[in-house]
Amino acid sequence: MKPYLLSELIEHMNKCPYTVAIDGSNDTGIEKMNPITVRIFDINRDKVVTQFLDMCMTGGKHCGTAGTIFAGMDGIFQKYQIPWKNCVGMGLDNCSVNMGCRNSIRQRAQLKNSSIYFMGCPCHIVHNTSEKASSEFTKETKFDVEDFVLDLFYYFDKSTKRKATLSEYASFCDVEYRELVKHVNVRWLSLELAVHRALRQFSCLESYFLSEGDGNVRATRLRTAFNDPMTEVYLLFYQAALQAFINFNKFLQRDDPLIPFVHERANKFVKTLMFKFMKITALKDKSSVLDVDFKNVALQAEDSQLFIGMTTQQKLAKLFEEGSITERNKKKFFCAVRKFYVKAVDYSLSHLPLNDDLLKEARWLSWTCRSEAQLSQVQFFTSRYSDLLPDIDEEAILDEFSEYLLLADNYIETLKESGEEIVPLDRLWANLAKIKLSSGQSKFAILSKVAKLILVLPHSNAAEERIFSMVRKNKTPFRPNLEAEGTLSSILMVKLAIDEPCYQFEPKESLLESAKKATRKATRKNNVEHNA
């Protein structure tokens, strides 16, 4: 299967635009895996797909340097005779080895093709934003939410006795017992899940640690935390504040092409954070979030107006009325909340692609943005990728663009499948490419070609991260000897290339013939060995 799928992928990369993504891991010990994935527009499935190209192994003490990784990557391209000129984009995470100003993979790839668009992974940026903001919160309150949820998980992990005792406390507190969630700081969405699970069982956890006399160091830290009435307030705040990060991160992890929406959603994310701690008047007349003086205290909301979540407000008010906390506790908490949001906005503004020209110009692809689309946006891409879009007839593209703008608004409804609210952009443009004129020519021949080029551009590195999840699921302690460049690579290639159930897969005659030849060859070899 792998040779057949690989040959098809290479053939496509030789003829059509593609984007490539690479990320590094050291799961194999002395060698480093740098799996390469490719995004292409599959005309057979009318969609943008991500496929596995090669594991790109590097070794030695310099295995993680930009020079070594890119040399391995370029060697694979040369081996399969894949042209760099067809590469329109590259997805990399945001470390200096990948995206740095000096001696990085980005710089080396630009020497091969100066038109390549580089997208640092916004999923990582959003995750790092929440971590930076959380650090500011911790400095003010001395409460580290990551340490807290990790202590909780590992205290009960591997101890049936402790879990059984906690289950009894849960029954006594009339709370459903649930296993605690393990937070992994490199997993983008695990913190909110861990906080949510801890809050659902907060009353029984509090009773457990304030009643049990375990002298364990971890238990002592947790007992101190549960003795503080503000701990539940802190957790409730995180549960409310993290939703904005989660929603944006989930959006970026989608498989369908999103490049026309990234600029708008990134700006909306930052604006959402600003609304949580700034006066509305400070944002009202600003055309861009980059123009907002968010550090100006005079433009920030009063403590009582800061967004902390309704449940957090109610809990804070209740504790204050009961006399469990003082005015000083409240001021300290609101100071921490303010620092959390200020840091989150500060980091987002400096790292997210909020003013990226390509992302702004790509919005014309979106059906909902047609009324604002301009021909200059299309020309931006025909100019940037002139080598892949040569000899563009300006009159023809103007005619096609005008026809695109004049399409009936309800055209999109005809493309929706059962229960579908939004039509993926790749399916939209695949269908537009099939509309014929009376002469038999495509009505949007040029425009659809430009659109398909843009749609393969990466909007995050989520697909690359999923490769490592697939590696862990296949290379287990029970199958530790799967060769990274052998069986493991074959599994990854098949899994990514074929997204339908195996019983629906219809192999081509050439593949069946290759399989028969391989079977006959293996049979002859076995017979010879048996007779010997």
Task: Describe the model.
The protein is α/β, with parallel strands linked by helices. The chain contains 24 helices and seven strands. A five-stranded mixed β-sheet has the order 4-3-1-6-7. It is globular. It starts with a helix and ends with a helix.
Give a topology summary.
Layout: H1 2-15, E1 18-22, E2 31-32, E3 36-42, E4 47-54, E5 58-59, H2 66-79, E6 87-92, H3 96-99, H4 105-112, E7 117-120, H5 122-141, H6 145-156, H7 160-172, H8 190-200, H9 202-211, H10 217-227, H11 230-241, H12 243-252, H13 262-275, H14 280-284, H15 310-322, H16 327-351, H17 357-361, H18 375-384, H19 394-405, H20 425-434, H21 445-455, H22 462-474, H23 487-497, H24 509-531
Parallel strand pairs: 1-6, 6-7
Antiparallel strand pairs: 1-3, 2-5, 3-4
Helix pairs in contact: 5-12, 5-16, 6-8, 6-10, 7-9, 8-11, 9-10, 11-15, 12-13, 20-21
Task: Describe the structure concisely for a colleague.
By secondary structure, the chain is an alpha/beta fold. It has helices spanning 2-15, 66-79, 96-99, 105-112, 122-141, 145-156, 160-172, 190-200, 202-211, 217-227, 230-241, 243-252, 262-275, 280-284, 310-322, 327-351, 357-361, 375-384, 394-405, 425-434, 445-455, 462-474, 487-497, 509-531; strands at 18-22, 31-32, 36-42, 47-54, 58-59, 87-92, 117-120. The chain has a five-stranded mixed beta sheet. A two-stranded antiparallel ribbon has the order 2-5.
Relevant terms:
alpha/beta, five-stranded mixed sheet, two-stranded antiparallel sheet
Rg estimate, integer Å: 27 Å
Estimate percent helicity: 40-55%
Q: Which strand order do you get reading across the main beta sheet?
A: 4-3-1-6-7
- Mean pLDDT equals 91
**Head-to-tail CA distance between termini:** 31 Å
Q: Kindly name the structural category.
A: alpha/beta
Number of strands: 7
Helical stretch tally = 24
Extract low-pLDDT stretches. none
User: What coarse outline follows from CA principal-axis ratios?
Assistant: globular
